[in-house]
Amino acid sequence: MKLAKNKLNRDFIAILYQHYPQLKDLANFLIDVLDMGKESVYRRLRNEVAFSFDEIAAIALALNVSLDKFIGSNTNRVYLEMQMHEIKEHEELYVEIISSNIRSIQKMSDQNALGVYSALNRLPFGYTLAGKKYAKFYYYKWLYHTLKGAMKTNFSDFILPASIQNIQEEFIKVSNSTKCEMSIIFDENIFLYSIREFNYFRKRGLINDEDTQQIQAELNRIVEAMEYSTRTGENGLGANIRIYLSLVDVEPNVSYVSYPEPELCTFNIWSPAGDIVTTTNPEFCRRQKEWLDSMARYTTLITQCNEKEQIEFFNKQREYIANMTNNL
Questions:
Q1: What is the dotted CATH code of the domain comprising 2-76?
Q2: Residue ranges of the domains in the chain?
Q3: Is the pTM value of this prediction over 0.85?
Q4: pLDDT tens, position by position, 176-192
């Protein structure tokens, strides 16, 4: 019985290391959360003393992790985590969603991520929030769907709240500081999906011609930024980036992040609303990484090579943008 208890404690400690890979950082976290002396914390981390249920509950609360994840760590279940925000004003809720994305990026920097591997069928925040007009549209679209179509305000009359503008600018600042290596698989129609969403609002008469032209200009700047990364093999900050074109449809927007510790990784799934569903389960992450690797069989690398495919892809996106209002 004691052996089983010790094993449960070891498994719990292993999960804690997924959140704080460095022993010193983990110990300081536990000292603060448990209001406990340094030696008492280290005795628990050496598995000399088992964590009590109250201590586990306090740690779970501080990490914002379900107790199920700790208790079920020895089973064949995988627990996915998503921040369930309290019911608030829509503006505050959107700020929290973007903030959770910011925390996800900051984690990569804080824990020295080795690489990020993504498969995308929609333009990520790093691109969509870079242009003021399109960033405004992204919130406008989110609010429209959140209100279940009850919003009737025209886009030109819609005022972007200062809190939204500030959090979007903060996201761009944090995103631009990311320097880990990236491998990205783009759906060949990645712009088309965004344009179809935009045209829905045009069709309903909510967006006028002037705003459309300004968003078209911003989308073209996004194409130029993507083209720069493809041509140079870097993201403008010196970080290596490899871009692939998928020959099959990419379904959800996902990313796999690897860290220096062999068993530490994160798998993120983005919902259409921008929420992140995350797991650090090593086996699940390994399987999803294998899935991303298998997609390489259906892709073409266009970074610093395959100039013909590069030209065709970016010309195709520019054509989508130029004709985005032709077939309402």
A1: 1.10.260
A2: 2-76, 82-322
A3: no
A4: 877 788 899 999 888 98
